[in-house]
Structures are given as C-alpha cells and as structure tokens.
Specification:
Shape: globular
Number of strands: 0
Number of helices: 9
Strand content: under 5%
Oligomer: single chain
Structural class: mainly alpha
Length: 160
C-alpha cells in the first residue's frame, strides 16, 4: 500500500494500481481487514482517475460497509468524501456536495484530518463537484450536508 501511495501521489497510476492490488491480496491472505479496506479506498482513487466512476462507487461501498461494521467514524467519513467525486461525475452534483459537507462536519466533530496523500484527491473531487454547480447551489447543498449525521451519509451512499 505504501508503494502504491508513493506512486499515486507521483502520478504513476498503473504502478499504484499494481501495488494496491498486491496489498489487497496480501491483506486478504493475512486477514488484515483494515488494511484491505484502506487499500481498496486507494484503488477507488485510481478508478476515479480512469473515469471509471461506477467501479469507484462499488469499491467505496465495499469499504464503507466494512468501516461501518468496525465502527470507524474517520474511515466512514473518508469513504463518504471519496465517493462524492464519482457521484457528481455520474450526474448528481447536489447529492455529491451534500456528501462532502456531511463528511467535513463529521471530521470536524471527531477531530480527524485528511491524510496528506488523500488531500489532492479530496481537493480534486471538491473542485469537480463545485464546477458542476453554480456557487449558490453548491454552498446550499454543502450546508445541507453538514446537518446530516454520519449514519445518514453512509446510508445515502449504500442505498440503505
């Protein structure tokens, strides 16, 4: 996973993907559930880079289910933030802005920071969603999302 992160932040998506896939296989062999869903989240970023948003959403739903089972609020917020870019790209930018707002509010409440290697992904997703909406609509949807609970945001993504 670490090698994948280095490759991803340096724009080497194919190398990152190979390393992430190897890390997922190793996590499955060793039963390291948290490492698996963290690495699957990283694979979702590669899917987004490839504009394969359906795959990104499927991967992130997988990680959100596991993070929810483990009651890991930070990782649930991370998954909600990550999925927003794909939700927006697939034609639901207001929903995406709400999800971004919800995740931001949760991270603030629990005092969690975005991983430095994930910050460019979050910035890219926010910019993409913002670019699909006028500023008033974006801000209103973001504010609406900040009122959501984490459980509501995760349920929205999972279709619960």
């Amino acid at each position: 996973n670490a090698l994948g992160e280095i490759a991803r932040v340096n724009g080497q998506d194919e190398r990152a993907k190979r390393n992430y896939e190897a890390a997922v296989a190793l996590a499955e062999q060793t039963g390291n559930i948290r490492r698996k869903y963290t690495t699957v989240t990283n694979l979702s970023y590669i899917a987004q880079h490839e504009a394969d948003h359906e795959r990104a959403i499927a991967l992130l739903r997988q990680t959100l289910r596991t993070a929810r089972e483990m009651v890991n609020y930070n990782d649930m917020a991370c998954g909600v933030q990550a999925v927003a870019g794909s939700v927006g790209a697939l034609g639901e930018p207001e929903r995406a802005a709400r999800l971004l707002g919800a995740a931001e509010a949760v991270r603030e409440r629990i005092g969690a920071l975005v991983e430095p290697s994930d910050q460019p992904e979050l910035d890219r997703n926010i910019a993409a969603v913002r670019g699909l909406l006028d500023e008033t609509t974006f801000r209103a949807a973001w504010a609406e999302g900040r009122k959501m609970t984490l459980e509501q945001a995760v349920a929205d993504v999972l279709g619960d």
